Amino acid sequence: MLGMEDENSYAKLIIAYKELAYQNEEKEKRAAELLIANKELAFQNEEKEKRAAELVIANKELAFQNQEKEKRAIELMIANKELESFTFISNHDLQEPLRKIQTFSKRILMEESEDLSERASYYFERIQHSASHMQTLINDLLDYSRMTAAERKFEFSDLSKIVKEVVSALQDELQKKEAIVEFGKLSEVNIIPFQFRQLMQTLITNSLKFSKTELPPHIIIKSEKVTSETSRDKALRRKVDYCHITVSDNGLGFDPKYKDKIFDIFQRLHDKENYEGTGIGLTIARKIVENHQGIITASGEIGKGSTFNIFIPIQQF
Q: How far is CA 198 from its chain centroid?
C-alpha cells in the first residue's frame, strides 16, 4: 500500500504530466499559427512585389501619357497658328476676288441686259449665286475657326436676355414666315455670351429654314436645372449641376438615324435646290457647346419637327 505522501507525490506527478502535455499542445498550436502567419506574410510580400511592379508599369504609362499630352498640346498650338493663317487668307485673298466677281457680274446684268440673251443672263445670275454661296461658305468657315481659336471669357448671363436679342435681330426673317418664338424666364448660366448668341441664332435660323410651307414656324425654348441623377442623359458628369436647354420646333424634322451625323461638317439632310446653306451651322453649334464643356443632341421625326437638347454646366470647372 502507498502511504499518504506517496499518493500526494503521484497526484502531483499526474498534474505535472497533464500540464506538460497541455503546454506541448499549445506549442504545437502556436507553431501551426506561426506557420500560417509566415505563409500569410510570404503571400503579402508577393502581393507587395506585384503591386510594386504594377506601380512601376503605371508610372511608366503615366509618363508616356504626359509626353503624349505635351506632343498633342504642341500639335494643337501649331494647328491653331495654321488656323489663324487660314483665317487671314480667307478674309483677304479669297474674299476680294469673290467680291469682284459679284460686282462685275451685277454690273453686266444691270448695264448690258439689253444686249444679253436670255441664256447669257441666266448664266450671269448663276455666277452671282455661286459667288454668293462661296462667300457664305467662307464666312461660315471663318465663324467655325473663330469658335475653335477664340479666347473664352465666361460670365454669368441671363439666357432670356440673349434669346430676346437674337429674336430682335431676326425680326425680319421671323415676320416673313409669321414665325412665333416662345420662351419664358430662362436660367442664368456661366457662358461666353457672344458664342451663346450665335448658338441661339443658329438654332432658331435652322428652325426657320426647315419649316413647313403650309404651317407658320413655332419655336419653343425652355431651360431647367438638372444633374446626372435627375436627367436621362448618361453622358453627364456626376455631381455637376447643368442647365438643360431645349429648342424645339414644328418643322420638317429629320430621320432619327441621322441624329449624330446632323452635326458633322458639310452634312446636309435636305436637298440644296430648295434649302440653301453650307452645312456648317450645326457644326458651329456643337463647337460652341463643346467650348462650354457641354453636350448637344438632336432628336426628331420626318414631318414632326425636331428638338435640340443642350446641357451646359452652370459653373465652369
A: 17
d(CA 194, CA 151): 11
Q: Are residues 106 and 37 located together in one domain of the fold?
A: yes
Name the more confident of 6 and 255.
255
d(CA 10, CA 2): 10
Q: What percent of the chain is predicted at pLDDT more than 90?
A: 15
Q: What is the dihedral of CA 280, 285, 291, 295, to 10 degrees?
A: -120
> Is 300 or 221 the better-scoring residue by pLDDT?
221
* CA-based torsion, 253, 259, 265, 270: positive or negative: negative
Cα–Cα separations (whole angstroms), residue 189 to 106, 162, 185, 220, 317 = 46, 11, 13, 19, 13
Q: Supply the pTM of this predicted model.
A: 0.58
Is there a single domain that holds both residue 162 and residue 301? Answer: yes
Question: How many angstroms separate the CA atoms of 8 and 275, rounded?
Answer: 119
Cα dihedral 267, 292, 309, 184 sign: negative
One domain, residues 53 and 163: no
DSSP 55-97: HHHHHHHHHHHHHHHHHHHHHHHHHHHHHHHHHHHIIIIIHHH
Phi, psi (5° rounding) for residue 112?
-115, 20
Q: Are residues 180 and 211 in the same domain?
A: yes
Helix (H) or strand (E) holding 244: strand 242-248
Instruction: Identify which of 196, 197, 201, 203 has the alpha carbon closest to the alpha carbon of residue 292.
Output: 196
Residue range of the domain that includes 253: 155-313
Query: What residues contact 251, with CB distance under 8 A and at least 6 apart?
Result: 207, 210, 211, 212, 217, 305, 306
Over range 173-186, report the average pLDDT: 91
Which residue among 149, 166, 192 closes a domain? 149
pLDDT number for residue 27: 87
Whether residues 15 and 109 fall in one domain:
yes
